[in-house]
Structure formats: C-alpha cells, structure tokens
Amino acid sequence: MKSRFAQHASILGQYARAGLARRAEFRVEFINQVVMDCVFYLVHILTFEFLYNSVDSIEGWSRADMRVFLGMVFVSDAFHMIWLGAAWFFSAELKDGRLDSLRLRPAHPVLVYFFQRFSPEACLNMLIALSYLVWAWVSAGHALDPATLGLFVWAILLTWLGRVTLAVLFSILEFRFLNSDLSRLFMLLSIETADRPIDVYPRRLAQFLLWLIPVATWSYFPAALVLGRIGPGFAALYTLFFLAFTVLVMRWWRRSFRYYESALS
Amino acid sequence: MTSRAEHSGKAPVGQPVLRCQGLQKVFQTHRRDPGMRGLLRSFVARETIEVPALRGIDLSIEAGEFVGLIGANGAGKTTLVKVLTGIVPATQGRSELFGEPSFELSDAAKSRLSIVMGQRSQLWWDLAPLDSFLLLREIYRVEKSDFDLRLEQLARRLAVTEQLRIPLRHLSLGQRMRMEILGAFLHRPQLVFLDEPTIGLDLVSREEIRTILSEINREQGATIVLSSHDMEDIENTCRRLLILSEGRLLYDGDLVKLRERLFEKRAIELHLEPHAAEPDPAVLAELCGADVQLLRSSAGALSFAVPAARVQPFLAQVFARLAVRDLAIERTPLDVLVRELFQREGEG
Amino acid sequence: MAVHPQVALLLQATLYELKKVTAWRMGFFVREIARALLRPLLTIFMFQAVFAAQGATELGGRDLDGTVRYLIAVAWIEGLIFHDRMLDLAEQIFQGYVTKYLVMPMRCFTLALARYVQFSITQTGVAALLGIGGALLLPGVWPLPVAPEALLAALVLALAGSYCFLLLYFLLNSIAFWLEVVWTLLVMTRFVTMFLAGVMLPLSWMPEPLARALEYGFPYWSIAGPAEILLGERPVSDVWTGLAVIGVSITVLEPLRRVVWKRGLARYGGSGM
To answer: From CA A255, how far away is CA B131, in angstroms rounded?
Structure first.
C-alpha cells in the first residue's frame, strides 16, 4: 500500500500524464498558449519599461529591482497556469453541482480538484519566466551563489504555495454566494494587485495584502526576500504565519462542502 | 490502515453497510412571478421557498444485498443517493456508511464505495477512458497487477476492450455508460450506488448491463443499490425493493413478497382488426368491471390488467365483444404493481 | 406589420439574457459593478506612487488629478465594452451543445448578438448610475463630461467599439472547432487589447511612434479615444475619425467571422450527441 504522500504524488503524475495526452491530441493549442503567454509577459515588461522612462524609482524599487519583481510575477503566474487552471471553473462547476465525485474520492479534495488541469505548455512558460528572473538578477549585478539559490528556492516555493492557498480561499466564497463569481473577481484582482509591489499601495491596503489576504506571497514577498528588502527574522516569521494560514484555509474549504447542494435532480 | 478484507471487495455478509434514521433533506430555492415585473421584483426582494426532498427515511442495507430504488420523477431518489453517500449533508437525521457518518467519511471508507450516475460522467470527456482509469488507480491505491487484471476482465466482460484508448467523447452513449461502470468497479468497491445506469440505452445494452451487475453482486458479494426508472432493471436484478414517493419510503421489502402482497395479475394486450370500428366506451366499461383495469388505449390496441383467476372468463368476454386480431398475455409488470401501491397509499 | 423572424428572435433572446443575468444578484453585482470599481483603484495607487517618487507635477502630459480622472474615465467606459466572458460558444462547440441550434431555422450569431444587446442595455444603465453616483460623491475627482455632445460621442464610440469586440470574441470562440480550449486565447486577447486601448497605461506614457500607431486601432477608439473626448482632451469632431476606424474594423472582422464559422461548421463532429 502506498503512503499518503506517494498516493498524492502519483495522482499529480497522472494529471500531468493526462495533460500531456490532451496536448498530444490538440497540438496547436500548445503553441498557441505559449505564444499568448509570452505576449502577456511582454505587455507587463513594456508597461514598466515605459513607466521607468519617466521615473527612476517607484517607492524605492529601481528599474533593476522591478525586473526581478516581474520575474517573480511570471514564475508565480506560470505555476498557476501549469497546475491551477481548474480554479477558474470552480464557480460554474459548483453552481451546476458537478463536484459530486470529488466528495467520494479517497484523497485530499483540494489536490484532486485544483490540480486536475495540468498544462504542459505552461512548463515552457515557466522556463521562460525563470530565464527572465535569472537574467533580471544577473543583469542587475547580483551574484548567483548557493546561498542566493537557497533564497530563490524558498521564495519560489512560497509563491507557489501562495497561489494554491489563495485559489482555495477565494473558492470558499462561492459556497456561500453561489454563482457570484466572487472567486474569479478576487483572483483577477489579486493578479492585478500582485503585478505591482505592495509598497505602492496605501499602508492599510498593503497590510491587508500582507496579512489578511496574503497576495504579497505571490510576488512582493519573494522578490523582497531575494533582494534583501526584508530581514531574515521577518521572512521566517512570515513564512510560518503563511503555513498556519494555509492549514486553516484547507480546513475551512473542506467544511464549506456543507453548503454544496449538488444538482437538484 | 485498511485491512485485506476491505480490499477483497467483500464485506462480512449480514452486517449493515448502510444505515439511516429519520433522514430529511430540504432544499431552498426562489420563486419568481412571470414577466418583467416579476423579474425586477425577484432581483430586489426575492421569495425564498423550501422544497422538502426527503421527509424522514429509515433504512438499513446489509452487505451483499442487491437493492432496487424506484419512484416517480421528483420522488427523491437521487437526493437519497447523494445524502447516503455524503455528497450533500442531510438537513436532519442520521446516515452512516460502514459505521461512519456519511458526510464525514474517512478516505478508508471512501475506498470501499463507488457511484455511477447515468446522467453525469465521472470520466474525462476529452481523453481516452484508460487515462481516467489510470487516475482512479492512483486515487484508490490499486496495485498495478491487480489493476491490470481487473481492467482486462471488466473490459472483456463489458465488451469495451477496443474502446479503452479512444477519447470518451467519440464513444456512443452505451459505450460511455459501460466505461462508467468499469471505472466504478475497478477498485473492487463493497458498496456501489448506480443512479439510472441504463438511461438512454438500447434494449440489448440494458440487458447486458443488468447481467453484469448481477454477476458482480453474486461473485464478489458487492452490495449494490440500483436506482432506476426502468422497472425491468429492477425486476431482473434486485431482490429487495425500495419505493420512494414524495420523499417518503412507501415500500421497503422483498420484491417477490410485493407481488404476493398485491394480488397476482396478468397484463393482456389486445390488437384489434385494422378496419374495425372504435370500441364502444360502454363495452370497455363493461369489460373492466370491479377488478379489471384498462391500462392503455390507443388506435387499434388495448391493454388490461386482469387478476390471474379471471383471465379465462375475461378473454371469453373480449372475443364476444371485440374484433381481436392478436393478443399477448404477460406477468404483471412491476409498474402496474407500483401504480397500484401508490393508488392505495393515496386512498389510505 | 410582421417583424422579421431574426429580429423577433433577437428581442426574445435579449429578454431571456436579461432574465439570466439578473437571476443571480451577487454575480450581477460582482461582474458588472465591483470589477469596474476596484480595478482602476489599483492603477490609481500605482500612479500616485509614481508621481510621489518623482516629485513631479506633470508626467505623460497630465498632472496627478488629470491622470486619475483619465483612469476613472477609461474604467467607466471599459465597463461598456463587450467582455470575453459573455460568450460561452467555445464550450458549447466543444461539448457538442451547439448542435441543437444548428438544426433550428436561425443564425447562431443572433444569440450572440442578443447577448451584446443585453450587455449594452445593462451596462449603459450601470454606467449611468455610476456616473451620477460618482459625480455626486466624488465631485472633484470624477471625470465630468465637458459637454453633452462629448458624452454622446463617447457613448456612441464605446458601443460601436464594443460591437467590434463581440465580433472578435465570436471569431475567437469559433476557433474551438479546431482547438480544444480557447479560453487562454480569449483572456490574452482581452489583455492585449486593453493594453492597446490605453487601459493599463495611458498612450501618452508610451513612445510617440507606438502611441500614434495605436490610434489606428479599434481598441483605442473604443476606450481611450472616447475617454479623451469625454474629458475634452480631444475635440468632439474626432468622433468621426473614431467611427471610421471602427467601421473599417467591422468591415474586416464581419466577413472573417463568417468565414471562420462556416469553415468550422464544415469540420464539426457534433461530439456528445
């Protein structure tokens, strides 16, 4: 009998296999998505490059810092594209009562549901995002030693966990407000919010994004961590806080199925 | 840790695998008056109404049973299945599967359970069924050797070996349903709920699926709860019958005993001569009398439910009054019995 | 006089769409109002930070107040633009649901058109309420139209531009005859067109040649152009230039939409039947 960890790893493996099988059948989609995501990156880069043509720094973020920040945004986004595509469909599937089988599977429902739409093309995007991040780092004159690499691993893992946790957190709203699209709204707003360092927002909003709906984990915190804009003590404390936050969100999500009505017939 | 017995597909016979008491489920919905005014009114201040789907169900099912669940549309069949399996919580009452509360089933209990929904696929629409089965293997932690053997056996029995690698969306309705059943039995569940598994299928496919379900129940001792509109599904497979009406359990007992409880009848179908005049309503009324029922009347064909002991005099009467071209006599179909049961309930 | 069947169908379908959109109140509020209010707020914060960092009074041809007014105007008008989420045609094609419409004596596009009409009616109402509310609650900040003609010109341009977006999204949805999913395509198209329309960054912040080139596209004349007319940054007479650009875009998009739909139908398998 496989351990629970091995079971879940195997499920992810099967999702990845199924994602590849899909792409094998719909090949054009692969190229299409890669190209479109590159356009997404380009639009972001251009927006900030144009802005920095008029200013030297935005709330202490220089052009070079902002490039590293954007690299984190892209890495975070690529992770979402690879694994969390199902999050966009949660509202509709909940409304239509299509989550019945999810209730019956002997595995963690968050993993079974949210990770089911593996996107292989987004792996290429992840590669592009990582390359941009490394380029932004090196071109700013920073070193790429083992300690820095360790920081990067820490930062990137946190951004991925942040994506999962918030996708799950937002979907909880749909249980109470059926077909409200609140999860999509919060997701889109979070994506837009995370596109800029939280320093540009008013203090209270920045605190809100750090502690209450921690969108800061997607891009701000990881970028600030590797750039040394936050101290190691705060970084460790914040990571612990976010882990506890994740556990609470997962429990809350499972409890929310009390409001699931399935389809009436 | 799950025991070896749990994965053998058999639960100890005679032990209840499912138990519920005073089960109630109420759905909330909104009512809207027609027209633009109703639309605006509903948008500002809507009227919430409660729809009771289950009104106090008491039930116990033992390991190895093959139970049929029938009822009219809206009787609460699907809701009952969903509450029993823990898909949705009960509004009131208690429901247990394998001794655990249905809504809070552990993964070990879920591993012993399976469900097939005739109107809703649980397999990936855009991929070959085999891809979905490989995922199920990981979710249910089925050993590879066991999985391969089981897949080969079930696919052969369901005659879908050739279709395993074809995307689901390219398969026919019958093939898709066979795949759903295959997926449901891959992990040797001890309790399987089948909700309308033969809906939309042709006669041959329906018969084959019934046979397979009966075999699995007999050979593996899997407990099966079959909810269906098709009386033949129930008649040809189940030993125990549950009849739901308006969220209440109208009948829970032996299918054979139900026949005995309600007097035995025969269904007689008459085909009249093509050019003969329409039967006089007075004649039909006379033929029916106190214990004969006119079931259907259409152009050139009549169908009656007649007590077994009255068949001979009834036919003599028929031949004397009507121009009969052909006739067929059958055992009482279950739907006639059920209709009669509903009628009695209504009168009672 | 008998109404043309397609027009009668359009009216019925529009009413049906109105019923659908108002059936879920929270969804309506979120989709139609909350997003329109919250998104520009984030961009405004960004520009506040940019102005504060530079200590400048004027950047990109506007002072901070002017930039804020521009961003609100753009967001206000963007609310009128047909959204990619309004069409679920791609899903219907992939799942095979579209089959039922193919055997009916009607054009599928009429149903999409009904959504456009419903969307335009609803969003014009929402925009009017927002406009009145904004003008009353935020008199110093809210972008008041310089003249009634400017408001009318902006509305006409936005609704005509919105029709271009309908054609574009219908076309992209039709690609589902070939591809499995087109949602990425739709999301990204929305993203790029919003950039080209000056929603993410005012055109005046972009390099001059790029900004000039973008003024020949319908996205600009659907959102940023009307906003500039509304604020008096452009003369009202520029509405004709905008309508000409949008007219050319419709002339290109409409036959393209028909060809893609027709070719797609030729390879439709009707999966799920």
So the answer is: 30
Residues ≥6 apart with Cβ < 8 Å to B200: B118, B173
CB contact under 8 A, A54 and C60: yes
Question: Can you give the pLDDT at residue B59?
Answer: 94
- Window 196-215 of A: residues touching C by CB (8 A cutoff) are 196, 199-202, 205
Contacts of A15 in chain B (CB under 8 A): 135
Residues in chain B: 348
Number of domains in chain C: 1
Region B152-180: what's the mean pLDDT? 90
Distance CA B46, CA B37 (A): 12
- Given an 8 Å threshold on Cβ–Cβ distance, is C271 in contact with B39? no
C29 contact residues in A (CB cutoff 8 A): 180
Q: How many Cβ pairs within 8 Å bridge chains B and C?
A: 19
Assess A139–C contact: CB distance below 8 Å, yes or no.
no
Tell me which chain B residues have a C-beta less than 8 angstroms from the C-beta of C19: 39
Nearest by CB to residue B170, choosing from C15, C25, C271, is: C271
- Tell me the shortest Cα–Cα distance from C25 to chain B, in angstroms: 6
- Residue B248 to residue B341: CA distance in whole angstroms: 13
Closest chain B residue to C29, measured at CA: B43
| C271 domain residue, yes or no | no
Q: Mean pLDDT in chain A?
A: 90
* Phi-psi category of residue B199: left, alpha or beta, with phi > 0 → left and psi -120 to 50 → alpha: beta
Q: How confident is the model at residue B2 (pLDDT cuts 50, 70, 90)?
A: very low
C190 Cβ neighbours under 8 A, 6+ residues apart: C83, C84
Q: What is the model's pTM?
A: 0.77
Q: Which residue of C has its CA nearest to A62?
A: C53
Q: What mean pLDDT comes out for the span B43-63? A: 85
- Domain-embedded: residue C108: yes
Q: Tell me what ipTM this predicted complex has.
A: 0.78
Answer whether B297 touches C (CB < 8 Å): no
The domains of chain B, with CATH numbers, are 4-259 (3.40.50.300), 265-331 (3.30.70)
Residue in chain B closest to A13 (alpha carbons) equals B135
Q: What is d(CA C134, CA C76) in angstroms, rounded to the nearest whole number?
A: 10
Cα angle A115, A159, C38; round to 5: 90
Q: What domain range is C28 assigned to?
A: 5-266
How much is the pLDDT for B203? 82
User: A215-229, B94-108, B210-224, C56-70: lowest mean pLDDT where?
Assistant: C56-70
Q: Touching check for C95 and chain B: CB below 8 Å?
A: yes
- CA distances (Å), origin B220, targets B64, B115, B185, B186: 8, 17, 11, 12
Domain ranges of chain A: 4-259
Instruction: Note whether A7 contacts B138, CB cutoff 8 Å.
Output: yes
More confident residue, A30 or B180: B180
Largest CA distance in chain A: 63
Per DSSP, the three-state class of B26 is: strand
Cα four-point dihedral sign C246, C249, C251, C254: negative
Nearest CA in chain B to A258: B89
Q: Which pLDDT value is given to residue B109?
A: 92
Residue of C nearest to A202 (CA): C45
**Is A107's CB within 8 Å of B139's CB?**
yes
Tell me the per-residue pLDDT of A46-79, one tens digit each, with 9 for 90 and over. Answer: 989 998 988 888 888 999 999 999 999 999 999 9
pLDDT 10s digits, A198-251: 999 999 999 999 999 999 999 999 999 999 999 999 999 999 999 999 999 999
Report whether pLDDT(A160) > 60.
yes
Q: Determine whether the interchain pair C180/A205 forms a contact, defined as Cβ–Cβ distance below 8 Å.
A: no
What the block records as the tokens of B167 is 């995307």
**Set of chain A residues whose Cβ sits within 8 Å of the Cβ of C54:** 54-56
